[in-house]
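REVIEWER CHECKLIST
Item 1: Sequence provided? yes
Item 2: Single chain? yes
Item 3: Sequence as submitted:
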Amino acid sequence: MSRGLHLDVYLLAFDTAAQRLQDRPRAGFLLRAAALAELAHRGALGEDTAGRVKVVSGAATGDPVLDALIADVGTAPRTWKAWIRRGRDDTLEAAEERLAALGAVTVVDRDPYGPVAPRRPVTVQDPREALDLQARVAELVRGNAPVAAAPFADAALAALAAHGHLRLVLTRQDRRRHAERIHALTHRLAAPAPGLARAVNGLNLTMIAAQGGMGGGG
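Item 4: Structure as written out by the authors:
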């Protein structure tokens, strides 16, 4: 997927009927995890013997969201889980700006003289793009196609949707019924970084702990 995992996750988490993210705090965690996975898959990030994330290549990616994350990771040794939690709101807003620059969404600026709004209204330019992505990822989990044959990006998106409890994509029943398949898809993340796969597997618990309990989990 040419946009990168982090930007596709935004569309995956976008409720086209409500014209907003299914759960904005949850989306922040998912985008951060997706950006880390994108960089690990590209070979820009790896992990040391203690399982902490390290910069393998600091070369510019051409994506300001990813470049900012590489710069962050270079500041201190932390685990994948810690980097998923850290800076997630900034990554979410930066991803919205990137999608707007690419013409995929329209972001309405806040009125500096108006009431304080909890979020900036965002409109997806082509709702079918988000809906098609959600359907494709759901089919990967529910279907019978070999997991090993799925593109890394699709496997990562499916793992994030499942462990991030994106009910737009997968119901609770889906997650239970296809638990073994979800495990296999999540394991695909272990190829570039074993610790990343473990962090994604525990993503929902990480979100609950960081937020002190959060809704929207379905």
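Item 5: Key structural point noted by reviewer: The CA atoms of residues 149 and 155 lie 9 Å apart.
Item 6: Recommendation: ____
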